[in-house]
Every structure is written in structure tokens, then in C-alpha cells.
Amino acid sequence: MKIERIVATPVKTETRAGSIQSAAIQEDDWSKSPDAKNNYFSGGTAQIHTLTKYILRAYCDGAVGLGETYRKVTVAHLHRNAKALLGVPLEQLDTKRLPFPVDREYHGFELCVFDLLGKEIGWPMHRLLGGRCRERVECSYWSGRRTPEEAGQIAFEGQQLGFDCIKFKCNQDDDVAAWCREIESRCGRNMRITLDPNQRWGDYDTVRARLRSIEKYNVIVVEDPLDRTRLEDYRRLRGSGPAIVRHVALPYCEHGQRAEHALDALKAEAVDGFNFNGPAAPFLRLAELAELAGLPCWHGSEVDLGILEAGYVHAAACAQSCIWPSDIFGHLVRTDDLLVEPLVFEGKHVRVPDGPGLGIALNEAVLEACHCGPDIVLGA
Fold first, then answer.
1. Which of 220, 228, 250, 310 is spaced 20 to 30 Å from 118 by Cα?
2. What is the spatial distance between Cα 358 and Cα 376, in angstroms, rounded to a whole number?
């Protein structure tokens, strides 16, 4: 089997009203973390409906492998990756390390390869990854920045859907203690809370004061509370209440994030666990590193569509250490996932697809409606 042609279809999808942040909050600035040295992600999730993704279709002996890129990728890199795959027998590929850099453009092509291989031999992607250790993946509810009243309301909405954990983006100005108070008032003590300041809670003393302000609430994780390079401060924060977690996001190569940063954090005894996101094979290497260290992790995301989210579910299902609720929530924010049948959520869990490859089908009619430019034949 050789890939004969790869086509990229540019799409934009709308977001559900009120699904990201409170209307009273004018700026969704959570993406402007200290290591964002450019405007690559300026605007955060409030602008995702304006940002292009590409749906990839790889044609091979009558089969079609599906892929999806992150938002804001480089078209020249899509051509580069396609050229590296075209005409190469699939059975000769090292699926753990495809022949191009692990950057923002890698993941979509990895999905195409696994989808084609799985369809050829009749195996689901999780079996190609080594086999799943769970049939369902636990997920968290999600929100951007909110007023305290709306924080309680959105958490209650998630609880009514069967979730018992909610993740919030926040910055240095947000009154997270007030959020927690409202959440407990609406949901009781059973709704767990994860807070993600994207490194913006200031210095060690400021973070410690914030942790003291929320210590009586059911906050289970604080992710990247301050500059990720300050590993000694991270180490000192451990044991202060919530788990202290570092996000290692391989798609953020533009920000300088690398897989070895997880090892740096472990050597410094700086974290209680991780949020990992990136392509399936690199994600599993990181998850196995966490497992060896005896630490948990979860699977991160970028508010994605159904193809990428299906890939996340397969990968998370194969990782023994992936036991914290994962960030697989694009269906809560975007108006359509572009799938014929959506991923199956059962309360806070999503079922792992069992069909060949990704185990999903692309909704061509919705794809056509979301088209925002001409198709690109890659590698030509």
C-alpha cells in the first residue's frame, strides 16, 4: 500500500454561544503566557471560529485515511510532510517516528497513516498503538474565564451532564476563590476543579497566597501556575494542596516546548503530574515516562474537531498513567465535529471507537458547508 494523493480541505467552524467565556469579560487573553514570544496564538479560544484548520484525506488503493490539523498551521509544512509520505509503502513506515519534524503539522498526517493501516488490516487505532487498557476515557468539563456567578452556573451545567470535574482557564486578575465558592454553592463538594493560569500567577509568594485562598475547596490541580522555567519554585509549591502540574504541549514548538521538558521537571522533582498533548506515538512516550516516575497525566487538546479528538481518545486509552480527566471537549464548544456519528459520551466518559483505523466517518455535507477555500493537493 502506497499513498497516492493527499488533499487538504480548509475549514472554519462556528462556536456555540456562551461556550467559551462570560460576555462581561472583554479579552480572552489566556493564551498570552510568558513563553508566547509572538502573536501565534493571540486571541485564544475566543477567536477559534476565525482560524483555519485543514481536513486531510490520504488516498491509498481505494481507501481514504482521515486526518485533521491543529488551527493555524503552515501550508508549506503540509506540503513537506506529504512529499515524505507519497509513494512510500505504508508497511515500511516507522509509525513511532514519521519522517518529518514533530511540529504543528505532524499530527494530522500521523492520523492519516494510522487510519489507513487500520482500515487495511481491520484493526482500530488503539490496537496499532499497542492495545488499550480501558474502554472509556474520563474527560473534564471545560470553560474559559468567567464571572463568579457564571463559573457556578457552567459547573452546574456540566454536573447535570454527568461530569464531576471542570477545568477553567484563568489569569492573574481572576478571583478564583470566588469561582470556587460559587461552584460549591451550586454543585456541592462533588465537583472537582482544575485551574490553568497559563503561567500567569506571578512569583512563588503570590502563587502560595492564591493556593491558600482556595485550599478549602475541591481544587484538585493547578496547571502551570508560574513561569515553567522556575522549576525550583514548582518543587517548593508541591504539597501545598492541589497537585502542581506542568503542561508539555508538543504542538507548541513555536513556543519552544519540547518532550525533554517533562524529563527536566522530573529530575527537579517539580511536579505531581502532567498534561501532555501532541501526536499519539510521542504522547505515549511521554505517558510512559510519567508511568515510570509513578505520576499521573491527562491528554490535552486545542478545542478540536472530531477527527483529532478520536485520535486523542485512542491514545489516552492506551496510556496506563492517563488517569486524570482529559481535555477532550471540542464538541462542547464547536457547533459541529464534522463526523457522521459523533464520539459517544456517557456522562464524563467517552467510549473508545472500535471500528477499523480511527473508527469514524467524515460527514461530507458538513465538510462542504464549513469549506473556507479551495482544496490543496499536497506534495505536488
1. 250
2. 23
* Domains by residue range for the chain, with CATH: 5-35+43-124+361-378 (3.30.390.10), 136-351 (3.20.20.120)
Predicted TM-score (pTM) of the model is: 0.95
Place of cell 475566543: 46
Grid cell locating 219: 481544587
